[in-house]
DNA sequence: GGACCTATTTATAATTG
DNA sequence: TCAATTATAAATAGGTC
């Protein structure tokens, strides 16, 4: 007909997809891509990756490198009660950051590597085997609800201010780094 | 020039990168890419996405869309830690991974989200600028001291896009960048 | 609705500065 | 070393069946 019949991708429109069908298709495709990318990242760099994806009105999907459950559990497990001085936004962030900072990373790299490699192969095979079922990996059955975007407006102001400064920032140089910090092999 | 001078990507080697330097570079790049992809996914499909990345020997990086804080809370709140003996509701990925190799890894990650990513960048800048963050960004009081100036350039772009996103929130393009640098060896 | 196809865009490994 | 460039592989939006 009069349609152009453009088959290739025409560009990424980074906006919410209106059409529900297309949105779901995009969700499936891109989710898989993100997982794949994460898998590659983990495999190539040895990092551990955990991903949680919660589509609206559906169950969450997850991708965990070794084990995202353990990851989260560990993380939040050591969490402590938030401080009462938090203005609107709970202190969880702070706690997490602190934990992230104070956590010591000792990971068995060799095992990780093997596991990552295995994982990679498995994922590829899994993808090939049941493409139809690739959307059905329900990890958790926990209901996930969307949060409001209250922080966005707050963030906006900060960003606007910050952007100006960052823009004029290019020439400045300076970095504190610790030598020998990377302790791996 | 007799050399081929192949500059483009020659293919993804699905294996651990041997060179430490290259591995770090790849980690930074791909981590950002994964975050970007995840942000695109979240934006386009409205899904909630949270990513946790733990590089070896360094502190975890996190990313996510609306509010993984709540996500994690719900997870850990309603879902007890997955027991390896009764993994009926566990994810298939993890199951396959466990089957592939039964080695368990020690991980610790912090999980945050898109705004956490913003915060991460913002916090870094704010810290160095000594900006009074109490009014706007008070969430990240956590001690994260691995930021440096090297990310300014990348951060600029990220912030610019981010700003658009925050301003229009959902109709414009935008993606969060993590800090592009971790401590070098 | 899903699997495959293809044109085009995007990501990124290697290279250069 | 770090950032920028570039050429190539990979991702993917839309179409077809």
Automatic annotation (TrEMBL), chains A, B:
GO function term, MF aspect, one: RNA polymerase II cis-regulatory region sequence-specific DNA binding
Keyword entries, A-Z: Coiled coil, DNA-binding, Nucleus, Transcription, Transcription regulation
Compartment(s) where it occurs, according to its Swiss-Prot or TrEMBL record: Nucleus
Record-linked SUPFAM superfamilies: SRF-like
InterPro entries (alphabetical): TF_MADSbox, TF_MADSbox_sf
UniProt keyword DNA-binding present: yes
Coiled-coil annotated spans: 109-136
Source organism superkingdom: Eukaryota
MADS-box domain ranges (all copies): 7-67
Gene Ontology cellular-component terms listed: nucleus
Name by which UniProt lists this protein: Agamous-like mads-box protein agl61
Organism classification: Eukaryota, Viridiplantae, Streptophyta, Embryophyta, Tracheophyta
